[in-house]
# Entry
Amino acid sequence: MLRDLSATNGTYLQERTSNSGQTTRLTPLVRTSAALAIGQPITLGSVTAVVRYVEETATCDAVANSAIVHDAKLRDVYAQAFKAARSNITVLVFGETGVGKELLARSIHEASRRADGQFLAINCGALSESLLESELFGSEKGAYTGATQSRPGFFEATNGGTILLDEVGELTPTTQVRLLRVLEEGSVLRVGARSPRPIDVRVIAATNRDLAAEVAAGNFRKDLYFRLNGLSLTIPPLRERTGEIEQLARRFVRASCSRVERPRLDVSGEALALLRGYAWPGNVRELRNVMDRAVVLCNSGIIGAEHLPETLRKPPPLFVARDHEPARAPIATTTHTVDIEPQRFRAEIKSLERLRIVEALQRSAGNQTRAAGLLGISRRTLVARLGEFDLPRPRKRGLETAND
# Structure
């Protein structure tokens, strides 16, 4: 739809009568609206434009709601989520704790035909088996001690909307069987009831576990796994999306300042460098808590490194690889064997190496030659690492030239 709001230069629809593109009439829009078709030429003042198809990847920005989606991998996830939102396919969201699984699920709901319905998120690991079943499926009067009246469960309460089963990997075998029946039959049987009740609910599940491994180990039902896994989406951890850290941090600062009713604060470059170099095991949730804390502790107009937790200001040491040597991390002594996913381990190593480089540049006041000496690598290797980790090269050329 195109609407004219008394445009000074005029808004016109072009009407064509031949394939050659000859224009026969310009229809002005004056404080009115018109439906536009793909290929429709319009004139805005002296500029002519043609309505064309809008890529779904661009539309997914609207789907993302309040999420910051600039990382290429995350944009792809939200693009797929936008496509899935149009259907009733079940979606299984994977990701570490705090990466934003609920935000993605809510975005799917808001982009779906169920957007006017209710969205409800349930943490399956926060309730006992009996309480969870009562909350999910409802209960009849007298079904258990204290059940003085019939009560609908979350599935019935969300009828016509979307329900997110967060931490679905924590479900007990009995609850898994009941959930599978709900998904297969489109009906729910209250605890203590004899007849099921039909429901129409979109189910999205989320977990930080490897459900395929849980199935192989016999901890999760295979049929339920395949029923939930209509489309699987994996949200990358924050340490793999360092380009979004600054914008997320500033957004959290603005929100926190608004809540405590204080003027907006800025974030110093030193603090941002520490934020970008941290591994963020708690992901976006941890970043939000860190910025809330910084807003409380900051007495000036700028959040500095001193307002960040000590874990960010004094990270664990990392051995940066010398020339022609592979990178290696300090060896921790443990009393038991720990299974570490290789891809995650490499990502953590890179994140810590990136932080060590940032620290070296800070200690050398941006002088790349000195920073390389502190790290035990050549300046050429340091420059290569800056490009690899998407770090800006310091503008200290006069000092570097003198030292080189």
